[in-house]
Automatic annotation (TrEMBL):
Principal EC category: hydrolase
Source organism phylogeny: Eukaryota, Viridiplantae, Streptophyta, Embryophyta, Tracheophyta
Keywords from the UniProt entry: ATP-binding, Cell cycle, DNA replication, DNA-binding, Helicase, Hydrolase, Nucleotide-binding, Nucleus
GO BP: any one term: DNA replication initiation
Enzymatic reactions: ATP + H2O = ADP + phosphate + H(+)
Organism: Citrus clementina (Clementine)
Known EC number: 3.6.4.12
A Pfam family assignment: MCM_lid
UniProt-listed SMART domains: MCM
GO molecular function: 3'-5' DNA helicase activity; ATP binding; ATP hydrolysis activity; DNA replication origin binding; single-stranded DNA binding; single-stranded DNA helicase activity
Top-level taxon of the source organism: Eukaryota
Protein's name in the database: DNA replication licensing factor MCM5
Domain MCM C-terminal AAA(+) ATPase: 320-526
Subunit (UniProt): Component of the MCM2-7 complex.
Biological role: Probable component of the MCM2-7 complex (MCM complex) that may function as a DNA helicase and which is essential to undergo a single round of replication initiation and elongation per cell cycle in eukaryotic cells. Acts as component of the MCM2-7 complex (MCM complex) which is the replicative helicase essential for 'once per cell cycle' DNA replication initiation and elongation in eukaryotic cells. The active ATPase sites in the MCM2-7 ring are formed through the interaction surfaces of two neighboring subunits such that a critical structure of a conserved arginine finger motif is provided in trans relative to the ATP-binding site of the Walker A box of the adjacent subunit. The six ATPase active sites, however, are likely to contribute differentially to the complex helicase activity.
Length: 722
């Protein structure tokens, strides 16, 4: 043992760290081989190789299901989830090599290796945007939301070509993917010869023409409106998409994305963060993207076999329509026809695409007009909770841009981009607009196109585009005087333009009628609701019912697209002609046009209602029964509103008619032709003569309808020469 401590070099062939460069390389190589085997050998059915075939058909990109990867090898998905930035490029290399070998077998020639983009998808549930924190950085995440903005396409370098300004030597530096940049070395590796000047510090200049680029675009994804907690602002997340995912998405599209949660140094970070090197902005680098169709955009899209069986069994019951209507706003007493209309709105008709490219809307629009405290807003709130997609907005707090779309300038890049409003965000669902009459007329005009053509056209700041807004509109409004006045004509009570009224399929005039028995029932109902409000078991049952109704609506909208039968079409044609005839006769009798026009739009409305009623029973054909019910609903709503007013509401007795005639005579005596007098003074003068004030007012309204008197400013009455 002597001399063991003499100067000598001892070494060990064990690595200093267990996962050194050699071990990592070996691991990468084995993973690459596994990825190649997966693409080549994965069988879905006997002798069906989906990935190999799709790679030959479309060599640009390959859509990989993580469930298939898990079935093939249990380690691969966990590697992709934990460090996607390392293993996804490896997967793309494997796909490119497999493609090259497949082409060589087919063409028998040496092909050049082409890039293949790997897109990932999985059936797992999406995470909430609010739950993604720092622990997910550089991990694979899946979130869903609605796109509110899309930038222009930019070219992003994958390899930057550098040239030394002293010795002209070149270098290709790889760029970090996503929003990351390239790290340019500070010094040149060239060793100077004798007498040659050494390269200075920072000698590299970028040669853009010789660099390699891919297309890149940034999107802004916002939480789905229905996922935002009450009273909170919706969160949004920056997304970066590249290569074949570029220009596939427009604002207003609902997405489910898989991506790598990453961070970048924001150029326009606030002044307080200027010196903070460690503060970074999060974004998601998208590696898989799927559009969520309208019916499945909320909750799980897939229906279990058990659920489908239950739905079909329910639809086959003879009283399915009645049961669905009883589940609509059960806390509201009465208003049966309004509930039926709301049910039709939730289910909707069938959207049709004609051979010449014209699209006919299938969504039903409903207007509730009437007295305060008649549960109009409660209906709107119920629909917001129950519809698969819904946006609630108030008329006074909404502008034209907020309802349709606005063009916004980005702070950092100074370029304009489009941000969708309520009608775009609710694409495929319902927009509930409360206080519809309080909207400014110019803002109300903005939704004309969205209500009939179901698109929103934008031509602002150099952006000309058309956005989809395939929505139903449920609006609630009060008459101009606050309450519905029976002494006024329908025209004065419904203070909305005919252009917007004709776009509503059903218009309900909701009145607060004072009747002893009804008031007693309503009072009992409301007291009962307040008394049983805290019963927890009942509450959970109600939420379960709501959830069932939501799922049933979702299933019906997805699976069922009814059409009218021959006999139903003939019946509907005759009914429409009869309605037009009646309205013409009424116009001739009263001498004035109906406040709500009955046009071809109303015929289409009855068609949509018939289809919605058939859809509730999962029937693919709308029969005569559905048409009869649709015509009945139309008659009790829009037709009633069109006929309403003084002529119908007030049944004059012979005595009252005589008194009104006397009042008219006195008014004509009191005011010389062409002169004016204050309405208040005129009424005071005539009441002193022993006349009833309501009779005088009624006489004035009738004379005003006949154009015998006219009102000027400050309610001054002028007698016209007739």
């Amino acid at each position: 043992m002597s001399g063991w401590d003499e100067g000598a070099v001892y070494y060990s062939d064990q690595a200093q760290f267990p996962d050194d460069a050699v071990g990592a390389n070996h691991r990468r190589h084995t993973t690459l081989i596994k990825f190649k085997e997966f693409i080549r050998n994965f069988e879905r059915d006997k002798n069906v190789f989906p990935y190999r075939e799709s790679l030959i058909e479309n060599p640009k990109f390959l859509l990989v299901h993580l469930e298939d990867l898990l079935a093939f090898d249990a380690d691969l998905p966990s590697l992709l989830r934990s460090s996607p930035a390392d293993f996804l490029p490896l997967f793309e290399t494997a796909a490119a090599e497999v493609l090259a070998s497949l082409k060589m077998k087919v063409d028998n020639e040496e092909p050049k290796t082409e890039e293949v983009q790997i897109l990932l998808t999985s059936k797992e549930d999406s995470m909430s945007m609010r739950s993604i924190g720092a622990q997910f950085i550089s991990k694979l995440v899946k979130i869903s939301g609605i796109t509110i903005a899309a930038s222009r396409v930019k070219a992003k370098a994958t390899y930057v070509h550098l040239s030394c300004k002293n010795c002209k030597s070149t270098l290709d530096v790889p760029c970090r993917p996503g929003l990351g940049g390239a790290i340019v070395p500070r010094s040149c590796g060239h060793i100077p010869q004798a007498g040659e000047e050494p390269c200075p510090i920072d000698p590299w200049i970028i040669v853009p023409d010789k660099s390699q680029y891919v297309d890149q675009q940034t999107l802004k994804l916002q939480e789905n409106p229905e996922d935002v907690p009450t009273g909170e602002l919706p969160r949004n997340m920056l997304l970066s998409v590249d290569r074949h995912l570029v220009q596939t998405i427009v604002p207003g599209t609902r997405l489910t994305i898989m991506g790598i949660y990453s961070i970048f140094q924001s150029a326009n970070s606030p002044a307080s963060h200027k010196g903070a090197v460690a503060v970074r902005q999060p974004y998601i680098r998208v590696v898989g993207l799927e559009e969520t169709n309208e019916a499945s955009s909320r909750g799980a899209a897939a229906f279990t076999q058990e659920e489908i069986e239950k739905f079909k069994k329910f639809a086959s019951q003879p009283d399915a329509y009645k049961t669905v209507c009883s589940k609509i706003a059960p806390s509201i007493f009465g208003h049966d026809d309004v509930k039926k209309a709301v049910a039709c709105l939730l289910f909707g008709g069938s959207r049709k695409n004609l051979p010449d490219g014209v699209k006919l809307r299938g969504d039903v629009n409903v207007l509730l007009l009437g007295d305060p405290s008649t549960a109009k807003s409660q209906f709107l709130k119920f629909v917001e909770k129950t519809a698969p997609i819904a946006v609630y907005t108030s008329g006074k707090g909404s502008s034209a841009a907020g309802l349709t779309a606005s063009v916004i300038r980005d702070g950092s890049s100074r370029e304009f981009y489009l941000e969708g409003g309520a009608m775009v965000l609710a694409d495929g669902g319902v927009v509930c607009i409360d206080e519809f009459d309080k909207m400014r007329p110019e803002d109300r005009v903005a939704i004309h196109e969205a209500m009939e053509q179901q698109t929103i056209s934008i031509a602002k700041a150099g952006i000309t585009t058309v956005l989809n807004s395939r929505t139903s509109v449920l609006a609630a409004a009060n008459p101009p005087s606050g309450r519905y006045d029976d002494l006024k004509s329908a025209q004065d009570n419904i203070d909305l333009q005919t252009t917007i009224l004709s776009r509503f399929d059903l218009i309900f005039i909701v009145k607060d009628i004072r009747m002893y028995n009804q008031d007693k029932l309503i009072a009992s109902h409301i007291i009962k609701i307040h008394a049983s409000a805290d019963a927890v078991s009942a509450d959970s049952k109600v939420s379960k019912e709501e959830n069932w109704l939501k799922r049933y609506i979702q299933y019906c909208r997805l699976e069922c697209h009814p059409r009218l039968s021959e006999s139903a079409s003939a019946k509907l044609r005759d009914q429409y002609v009869q309605i037009r005839k009646d309205m013409r006769r009424q116009a001739n009798e009263t001498g004035e046009a109906a406040p709500i026009p009955i046009t071809v739009r109303q015929l289409e409305a009855i068609v949509r209602l018939s289809e919605a009623l058939a859809k509730m029973k999962l029937s693919h054909v709308a029969t005569e029964n559905e048409v009869n019910e649709a015509v009945r609903l139309f008659t009790v709503s829009t037709m009633d509103a069109a006929r309403s007013g003084i002529n119908q509401q007030v049944n004059l007795t012979a005595e009252m008619a005589h008194e009104i005639k006397q009042a008219e005579t006195q008014i004509k005596r009191r005011i010389p032709i062409g002169n004016q007098i204050s309405e208040r003074r005129l009424i005071d003068d005539l009441t002193r003569m022993g006349m009833n004030e309501s009779i005088i007012r009624r006489a004035l309204i009738i004379m005003h309808q006949r154009d015998e008197v006219e009102y000027k400013r400050e309610r001054r009455v002028i007698l016209r020469k007739v």
